[in-house]
Design a protein that fits this description.
By secondary structure, the protein is of the alpha+beta class. It folds into two domains: 44 residues, no CATH class; 76 residues, no CATH class. It has three helices and ten strands. Strands 1-2-3 form a three-stranded antiparallel beta sheet, with no helix packed on it. Strands 4-10-9 form a three-stranded mixed beta sheet, with no helix packed on it. The chain is elongated, with a radius of gyration of 17 Å.
Length: 132
Amino acid sequence: MDQIGKYQNQVPSLSALNIKDYERIFKIFKAERDGKEFYYYNILKKIEFPEIDSSFLEFYNVPTRMPMTTISYNIYGDIKSWWILYLLNKEVFTGAPFYVDGGVQLKHITKELRSAIYDDITQATVFGGRHF
């Protein structure tokens, strides 16, 4: 098991990830077995946001119980940004972590600033196994 110190998009033999893909923020590891190479992520590492300036945020009122992917689609027009909503609103998840009950207000990064935040996360330095 070797950490190769690169992101998936930096390894030519692997397919490129979209900026919205959660996996994009993790460096990959490589293992060899039976003469084959395998790449994988360290899923034990976690991401946490520092305090975010309120000018970067908006709010979404969840009309009825919904999965995070549907909420992501309603806000951003894609289902892949569910993880950023989860990280910004962890305190509201009491039951099923992938669903949000109706009547809950979620904070989210504005659609216009989302790409800049993704880039910042990808370039972030790791402290104590967490990206900030």
